[in-house]
From TrEMBL, chain A:
PANTHER family: ABC TRANSPORTER, ATP-BINDING PROTEIN (PTHR43335). One of its GO terms (molecular function) is ATP binding. InterPro entries: AAA+_ATPase, ABC_transporter-like_ATP-bd, P-loop_NTPase. This is ABC-2 type transport system ATP-binding protein.
TrEMBL record, chain B:
It comes from Paractinoplanes atraurantiacus. The lineage of its organism: Bacteria, Bacillati, Actinomycetota, Actinomycetes, Micromonosporales. Keywords: Membrane, Transmembrane, Transmembrane helix. The chain crosses the membrane at residues 56-79, 100-126, 132-154, 161-178, 212-233. Pfam families: ABC2_membrane_4. The keyword Transmembrane applies. This is ABC-2 type transport system permease protein. It comes from the Bacteria.
Length: 234, 238
């Protein structure tokens, strides 16, 4: 299994952010991670990447904790937030430092810059980037190690319609290549258009883990299905 | 480990911080060496050789090195890049070691160069042009240890302001305050501070302890700061 969560739990002081999540995310499809703001999506993703320490339970990538990999960027590509680079560093130098950290050939930097359509802006400092350019740089970084697993936290936030369409296409293509694509959003329609499998959480708890078609089948729309789930949980 | 160091090295040289810091360090060093040389010629300062003048002149230039070392760590938090960085290099120990290696290399080399610069400036003004190389090597070692101390402390405290305040306290603020009343107990306490221990190492006096002990005390502080920084990195969420 590409991403495995076992009774994953996280508390911040008295806040229960993630509450005993059991989950397996499979390769070859886009898995949407849906839940209202504050549901625990970002916290879950940070624990998968070894950034936050679980209060209890485990998160594994291809059977091992992320932090155990010598070259994690070749295993997992992640886009956590748009502000991932130092404002004073150019996009290309950011990717170059990133490549060197995981012994990835420097030539790969220009490859991924081309893939995300950022070639011209690569020499500009990150502080001058628009939100959309920042997201493209983040995606370039995620693709740098040609990883089999991609984790994206709200990648379409703040993007213009062209950017949204572009990301949707890219994610579906990456999944079609057999990769695992795990993407969070609090936007129903966005998930409906991008994901073929859906994981729904609220208040840190798992509400549903099912193919999109199954969720839609019993209801008129994803919206109906979603509100039925979240209301029965509340 | 080589990959992590290479990445940190690339990061260091690809923002403007390093250039400003080095410019400030060399400018302050040259200016202080010039000024101190005139004091020597006037007989106001006990130093005699050009190397001694350079050593005296570190007092101000060291702040630029300390700031540079600290920023290597604190900028990860102020720019919000620490999560990205730890996702590249998830091992906290490896990341901190890489940063320390890079800081140590730059402060050692930069410190020796600054020491040579100060010595050359002084040699043009004071009569005794000796000790330049020896002084520069001592300055490089001193600034390297100070740089490592600053990096470790920054990892423990995370914020640039609080880190700088604590560093200045330990190096330039508290020791003189303790020494003002000239009470032996307080002087003894001051002698254990990193700034005073560094002074004893640099000046080579054997009172109250030999030069090597000053070096060891400074090393002890650097190790302590690194261990504190490592523990905080290890325990706290990014
Ligand atoms: N670093 C943190 N410190 C304290 N509370 C946090 C922290 N990160 C998240 N939380 C809390 O945990 C809960 C889940 O947050 P988050 O994972 O960001 O949700 P989502 O990404 O689904 O919007 C929220 O109540 C949030 O306030
Ligand atoms: Mg979130």
């Amino acid at each position: 299994m590409a991403i495995t969560l076992q009774k994953l739990t996280k508390t911040y002081g008295r806040t229960l952010a993630v509450d005993g999540l059991d989950l397996e995310v499979r390769p070859g499809r886009v898995t949407g991670f849906l839940g209202p703001n504050g549901a625990g999506k970002s916290t879950t993703m940070r624990m998968v990447l070894g950034l936050d320490r679980p209060t209890s339970g485990r998160a594994l990538v291809n059977g091992r904790p992320y932090a155990d990999y010598q070259w994690p960027l070749r295993e997992v590509g992640a886009v956590l937030e748009a502000k991932a680079a130092h404002p004073g560093r150019t996009g290309r130098n950011h990717l170059l430092a990133m490549a060197r950290s995981n012994a990835i050939p420097a030539g790969r930097v220009d490859e991924v810059l081309g893939m995300v359509g950022l070639g011209d802006a690569a020499g500009k400092r990150f502080g001058t980037y628009s939100l959309g350019m920042g997201q493209r740089l983040g995606l370039a970084g995620a693709l740098l190690g040609d990883p089999g697993v991609l984790i994206l936290d709200e990648p379409v936030n703040g993007l213009d319609p062209d950017g949204v369409r572009w990301i949707r296409r890219l994610l579906r293509d990456l999944a079609a290549e057999g990769r695992t694509v795990f993407v969070s959003s609090h936007l129903l329609t966005e998930m409906q258009m991008t994901a073929s499998h859906l994981v729904v959480i609220a208040k840190g708890r798992l509400l549903a883990d099912a193919p999109m078609d199954d969720l839609l089948g019993g209801h008129g729309s994803l919206e109906d299905a979603y509100y039925e789930l979240t209301e029965s949980a509340a | 480990m080589r990959a992590a160091i290479s990445s940190e090295w690339t990061k260091l040289w690809t923002t403007r911080t390093i250039w400003w810091a080095l410019l400030a360090a060399f400018t302050l060093m040259a200016a202080a060496a010039g000024q101190n040389s005139f004091y020597v010629n006037n007989g106001d300062v006990p130093a005699t050789s050009a190397g001694d003048v350079a050593v005296l002149s570190v007092a101000i230039a060291q702040l630029a090195f300390v700031a540079l070392a600290m920023l290597v760590m604190t900028s990860e938090y102020s720019a919000g890049t620490i999560r990205a960085t730890l996702s590249w290099v998830p091992s906290r120990g490896r990341l901190l070691s890489a940063k320390i290696a890079v800081v140590a290399a730059v402060t050692l080399a930069g410190g020796v160069l600054a020491g040579l610069l100060g010595g050359v400036v002084a040699a043009g003004i004071v009569d005794d042009a000796s000790d330049i190389t020896g002084g520069a090597v001592k300055i490089g070692i001193y600034l390297m240890l100070l740089g490592v101390l600053a990096t470790g402390l920054a990892a423990a405290l995370r914020g640039p302001v609080v880190t700088l305040v604590v560093l200045l306290m330990g190096i330039v603020v508290v020791p003189p305050l303790l020494q003002i009343p000239d009470i032996s107990v307080l002087n003894g306490i001051a002698d254990t501070f990193p700034g005073v221990a560094g002074d004893h190492f640099l000046s080579g006096d054997s009172n109250p302890y030999p030069q090597a002990v000053g070096l060891l005390i400074l090393m002890g502080w650097a190790v302590l700061a690194v261990v504190a920084g490592w523990r905080v990195l290890q325990r706290r969420d990014a």
